[in-house]
Write a structure and sequence with these properties.
With 90 residues, the chain is of the alpha+beta class. It is 57% helix and 30% strand. A two-stranded antiparallel sheet has the order 1-2. Strand 1 (18-30) and strand 2 form a beta hairpin.
Length: 90
């Protein structure tokens, strides 16, 4: 996977919010041995980030500015089809 793809994937993840599992381990001494005393696993939620959302929106607008009239027409038709599919599903 290229660096740009990884960055875009990470930006999308940050823009949509995500969950991460975090583990905390506590060790103690028991008869000259170090043993695991406590293990705590929790899930932390990171909400969507507005800066990441704005970056993605601005990128999409920039992409649209570079399209030809034919490409814009195709994009319009694709979006209209998508809207119709959503409306038909409800």
């Amino acid at each position: 996977m290229e660096l740009n793809d990884k960055l875009k994937e990470t930006l999308i993840k940050k823009a949509t919010g995500y969950k991460v599992k975090e583990s905390v381990y506590e060790y103690g001494m028991n008869e000259d041995e170090i043993k695991l005393v406590k293990k705590k696993v929790s899930t932390k939620y990171y909400p969507p980030d507005l800066t990441a959302i704005n970056i993605l929106l601005n990128e999409k607008q920039t992409d649209l500015k570079n399209l030809t009239n034919e490409e814009l027409e195709e994009e319009k038709n694709r979006l209209l089809k998508l809207i119709k599919e959503i409306d038909d599903g409800n």
